[in-house]
Amino acid sequence: MISRLALKYVRDADKNPTALIKEKIEKAKELYQNFGEYFYKDPKFVDLLKKYEKAVEKSNEMMSNMKSFEECYICTVVEKKGCCKIGLETEVTINILLINYFLKKPVPEEREVPGRCFFVGPLGCKLFARPYICRDYFCKRLLEKFDPNEYILLTQVLNEELTLLYQISSYIKNELESLMGEFLLELDITG
């Protein structure tokens, strides 16, 4: 059975992406305010959160060293091309926003770069926890820049991050379903 909020997202799929992501941000804030303390008291959750944060930091360091972020910034913000176009923010789920709140990472409230993803700022992406597609996608431009051995190593590092993202997302969803007694499909809805 699909929940009322999930039905609302399906009905409102033709809304502009800014309105939809703002609704997701509000829902994530509400969940964080209502259940944050509960999750922080859970040692298993805290351990998963710490592991995930370290994995993202490791991936970010490697991507920075390989100049991946620099290339994405040039492509998206300077050249106005690339994959971080308006509408990509629909890939950001309530669960991913909630993870950012749990990590006490900022979540933008307004679009800063017109015509680009809601989460792109003047220097690139402003989210710490990001959707799978934003972490495990390398365009031809990047693949031509990477040494094949570096790419293999980066893929392995990102695999660890994305595995932990799946684990923590599943854990949050299962705990909230248990606490609220309903199926929370909308935590993972994109678009």
List its salient traits.
single chain, 2% strand, 8 helices, globular, two-stranded antiparallel sheet, mainly alpha, 191 residues
What does this structure look like?
The chain is an all-alpha fold. It has one domain (15-177). The protein is built from eight helices and two strands; from the N terminus they run αααααββααα. The chain has helices at residues 4-11, 17-40, 43-65, 68-78, 94-102, 132-135, 140-145, 148-180, and strands at 120-121, 124-125. The protein has a two-stranded antiparallel ribbon with strand order 1-2. A hairpin with a 2-residue loop joins β1 and β2. α2 packs across α5 (94-102) and α3 (43-65) runs antiparallel to α8. The radius of gyration is 17 Å and the shape is globular. The model has no long low-confidence stretch (mean pLDDT 86).
Question: How would you summarize this macromolecular structure in one to three sentences?
Answer:
The protein has 191 residues and is mainly alpha-helical. It has helices at residues 4-11, 17-40, 43-65, 68-78, 94-102, 132-135, 140-145, 148-180, and strands at 120-121, 124-125.
Structural class of the helix and strand makeup? mainly alpha
Mean pLDDT: 86
Continuous helix count: 8
Taken together, the total number of domains comes to 1
- Rounded to the nearest angstrom, the radius of gyration is 17 Å
**What sequence of helices (H) and strands (E) makes up the elements?**
HHHHHEEHHH
